[in-house]
Write a structure and sequence with these properties.
The protein has 3 helices and 36 strands. With 599 residues, the chain is mainly beta. The chain folds into 4 domains: 326 residues, no CATH class; 95 residues, Immunoglobulins (Immunoglobulin-like); 105 residues, Immunoglobulin-like (Sandwich); 46 residues. Strands 1, 12, 13, 15, 20 and 22 form a 6-stranded antiparallel β-sheet that branches. The protein has a 5-stranded antiparallel β-sheet with strand order 2-11-4-9-8, with no helix packed on it. Strands 3, 5, 6, 7 and 10 form a 5-stranded antiparallel β-sheet that branches. Strand 8 and strand 9 form a beta hairpin. It is globular. It starts with a helix and ends with a strand.
Length: 599
């Protein structure tokens, strides 16, 4: 659990990025809101040659819609293209660049697995809709595999009298994989990831459904989906497995929930009834590629029977809540975040507010205000997007000092004004100076962990054995003090809280997991905004760690990053803000590099 928690913190709790990453691109909520009707899901599923055609009928004009296309690249080195035609209108062709991909609406990970997202709200019509997805598969000199996993359209339509549906849509492309599945010299593993869907209230909810989507699924290799830590779906009926084993991504869609199953090669989409598990506040969806069934510390897809998928890509999670129409009220705007960029003395800064609509789509614009230490800086009218998410950028020219930045959003009929305000303390001075340092790596099992349950048992057993040996000797009075001391040690050890001892995992290529302590410090005079730390091993990038909240003036953050390597000497490099996206007063200390012994 220790390493799983580390990987979750590093990958799955940060905002998503469209820049290629082998381990994957984190889930992020890209749409949320409420429709006086229902949320529809239409798709064609199963890896096949292009073009792929999806047809469906809508009973009304979509309030919001998004279409996704999954494309298999073959390797992250191959490039090509994909395009989409909606009701006869061909959208601009999208280039697929493999490991060099940086397109905003393209999620590219692993060995060239693409999940491409299109906003199709204005392109869909009431009545029959036809969507055609194509790729460069049959183009001369093309190397991209180009087969299409599936085409999926989500559409919020005001078409059901008496029902109001609240929805959250999260998208990404996380490459859950075991050891040995990497493009470079060093193995990595990623066994699970999560996404949090915040629910403001559960009153009057009569139906709650969770829709999840995978690509690269394989039947016969267990996989799991959890909602608020509870397993979803039926147990497998495969021979040789204990009770509780699931295979959600089994290349048969709609068989883990309650719909009619359909065969879907290398693809899986499921809908689960989660009404009994729903709660007010954060609801967490967790994807697992497998579980360690034999207790050896490894989730092996090569075991007999397999313990999990070799690799699996969860790409979509949608939660919908249905209520009677009479319980619907109006918009519910929430000021979700305040981010301040380039806040340096005498320079132009930007205050960015992220606003989310948890309720009905408003017909009127919202009023947004920003105050600095209580004094109004700016006020403006903002139209809430159909996606339910909008960002507002306010210019600011601060002088040196500490400030309280206050944001506020207001709209007539807001059903919950209590979440409309937020504030952030900002220090303004000279340009930030981020510096990074590396400590010697170590294996998790090498560090003596105070309170370890295993160490407790060993220590107590050793102490008891020695005490009994000494006590059995004559004369006993000579060893009474020693016996009392050992007995006291046993009691103290037994009272310490147990902590599971983490043993190093053994990779298929003889590599092992190590913890690499890395510390990032801000030595400058202003707060640093969000940035990324890149870690290289023997010249190969093996990890990105996000710092979504940046780093305050004088702040320092130490992280123990899990890295797979074979025992021996390796060159390690850590780079802060490798892309040069931030202003930094001294970039010479943004890199730490050295040769370290992994023993």
């Amino acid at each position: 659990m220790f390493l799983i928690t580390l990987f979750l913190a590093l990958l799955c709790t940060t905002p998503g990025s469209a820049v290629y990453d082998f381990d994957g691109i984190s889930f992020e909520i890209t749409a949320q809101g409420e429709v006086p009707g229902t949320m529809h899901t239409y798709g064609v599923y199963g890896l096949d040659d292009p073009p792929a055609t999806l047809t469906f009928d809508l009973d009304g004009k979509a309030q919001w819609a998004r279409t996704y296309v999954g494309v298999w690249g073959g390797t992250p080195r191959y490039t090509g293209w994909t395009d989409l035609t909606v009701n006869g209108r061909t959208l601009p062709r999208i280039r697929l660049y493999g490991s060099d991909d940086r397109s905003e609406n393209v999620y590219a990970t692993g060995y060239g697995v693409y999940w491409v997202a299109y906003d199709t709200t204005t392109l869909l019509t009431a009545g029959r809709n036809t969507i055609i997805a194509n790729s460069s598969r049959f183009e001369p000199d093309n190397k991209l595999d180009g087969r299409i996993y599936s085409v999926v359209t989500l559409a919020a339509v005001p078409d059901a009298p008496g029902i109001t549906t609240q929805y959250w849509v999260a998208e990404g492309n996380v490459n859950l994989h075991g050891e040995g599945w990497d493009t470079g010299l060093h193995s990595t593993t990623l066994d699970e990831c999560s996404v949090t869907l915040p629910v403001s209230g559960t009153q009057s909810v009569q139906a709650a459904n969770l829709t999840v989507k995978f690509v690269t699924s394989t039947r016969g290799e267990p996989s799991y989906v959890l909602f608020n830590s509870r397993d979803l779906g039926p147990d497998v009926d495969y021979p040789g497995y204990p009770s509780g084993v699931k295979d959600i991504a089994d290349e048969t869609s709609f068989n883990a929930g309650y719909y009619n199953p359909i065969k879907s090669r290398y693809v899986d989409i499921e809908v689960f009834d989660v009404l009994s598990l729903l709660k007010k506040g954060d609801n967490v969806v967790t994807f697992q590629r497998g579980r360690d069934l034999d207790g050896d510390g490894i989730i092996s897809a090569a075991a007999n029977p397999p313990e999990g998928e070799h690799y699996l890509h969860p790409v979509l999670a949608m939660l919908t809540l249905e209520r009677p129409r009479a319980s619907a009220t109006g918009p519910d705007l929430m000021l979700d975040a305040i981010e301040v960029k380039d806040a340096f003395a005498g320079e132009d800064a930007a205050i960015i507010l992220t606003i989310r609509n948890l309720g009905a789509l408003p017909s009127a614009p919202a009023e947004v205000k920003v105050r600095i230490d209580g004094d109004l800086l700016d006020a403006r009218q903002v139209t809430i997007e159909r996606s339910g998410i909008v960002q507002v950028s306010i210019p600011w020219n601060p002088t040196k000092g500490s400030y309280t930045v206050q944001g506020e959003v207001d709209i007539p009929g807001d059903v919950n004004p209590s979440n409309n305000k937020k504030e952030k303390l900002v220090t303004v001075g000279t340009v930030p100076d981020l510096t990074v340092s590396i400590e010697d790596p170590y294996r998790p099992g090498d560090a003596v962990q105070q309170g370890s349950a295993t160490l407790q048992v060993l220590a107590i057993g050793a102490a008891l054995s020695l005490a009994l040996l000494l006590f059995a000797r004559r004369p006993p009075g000579r060893y009474r003090k020693i016996f009392s001391l050992l007995l006291g040690t046993m009691i103290i050890l037994s009272l310490l809280p147990p902590v599971a001892l983490v043993l190093p995992a053994t990779a298929q290529d003889a590599s092992q997991v190590y913890l690499l302590p890395v510390t990032v410090t801000n030595l400058g005079g202003s707060d640093a905004p969000s940035f990324t730390l890149s870690v290289y091993l023997d010249g190969e990038r093996v990890m990105n760690k996000e710092y979504p909240d940046g780093l305050k003036v004088g702040g320092s953050e130490r992280s123990e990053l899990p890295v797979y390597a074979s025992p021996g000497s390796h060159t390690v490099k850590a780079v802060v803000d490798e892309g040069g996206l931030l202003k930094d007063s001294d970039r010479s200390n943004n890199v730490a590099e050295g040769t370290y012994v992994f023993s």
